[in-house]
Fold this protein.
Amino acid sequence: MVSALALRPAGFTRRHQSETASGWRLFSRSFFLAGLMAGLMISSLPFHANAQQLEPFVPPANSLSNSPDVGDNKDEDDSKPKRDFAEEMRKMIVSLSRWAKNQRSDFSIIAMNGLDLTTFIEPGLFVTKSDAKPARNFIRALDGFLVEAPRYGRDGYNKETAEGEVKYDQQYLERLSNTGMRFFMLDYTDKMENIRKSRQNLKDLDPLYYAAPPPDMQLSALAKVPSTPFNENPFVIDTIHKARNYAMVIDSAPFGNKDAYVNALANTNYDILILDAFHRGTVPLTFDDMRKLRYKKLGTPRLLLAYVDVGTAQTYRYYWRADWRAGSPDFISSASNTGRWGQENHVYYWEPQWQNIIFGNANSYVAGLMQLGFDGIVIDGVDDYRWWADQ
């Protein structure tokens, strides 16, 4: 096993962050909607881009001790960082992509949510489409977007997503549709009527679609509705653009042991599997596990994408140390209220100390995923900048 994926004992499986009904995420999105929907009709300037058009990555210092102290840019009155939190997130994703693609040009970078980061615009009552400027470097850094609950699940499992939310996302998706990005749509419903309706409404985007099964939005099981993947096929899948379907499981605890988890996913015909590289968040997958997962039940190869959270640090991850707490080290902030067992802390994601853990050197999280054989990553926590903006 590669050093970046060393095992740390104990811990629980990380629950997905999408509990929108009771947290900062709903408040923030509603705030953005109020301003943007009044006048934001996103301009139709085409920008053909792909993630390999970026300048070469210049890695940050790899030594934690040489990283600048957190808090150098804080307000004297309320100790609140004077930062553009959205831009800091864009910059981190761009840096991550540049570094990753310098290692492997075919490594896919998928953002989970965060569509509003694709434009530079401040919410307000009098915004117009001319105010929306494309964040070109951020767009070019990505190969695709995974959008949660485009039609079902944003306000609860099997609940229809509000019309305003749908329109909000749709504007960004339509704008991005000419960039060559691949869209992954993830609804939280197990009713075939809902699934058919959602797929019909989304068909113009030609997305990969997955309807996650219950319980709630935990992504802890394989879908049973439908019983087989949409557009099941025997083809060799070596790029995300050849894929016709996908599945996502990031909470593997209900499967029991790691072998049962790996065998269940391997025994499917999905073109892409999105999964956590650690069973129950702590037990790392091995090269043998990856070989099993690599091939569809039909026998042809597929793609494997790893789930990575860049917005919070989880106490059960291999990188967490026993003496860490909020404020120590400096890039660790307060506990996240959306963590299922309170085992996540917000991070100062713009700090080199945190970024060096995730990417930029041979011992980083993403480097370990590459060595293990993953074909790309799905980046969660992209919209955590909203939590910071609300503080």
About this structure: The first strand starts at residue 108 and ends at 112. Confidence is low (pLDDT under 50) at residues 1-49, 52-77. Residues 3-60+92-390 form one domain. The chain has one domain: 3-60+92-390.
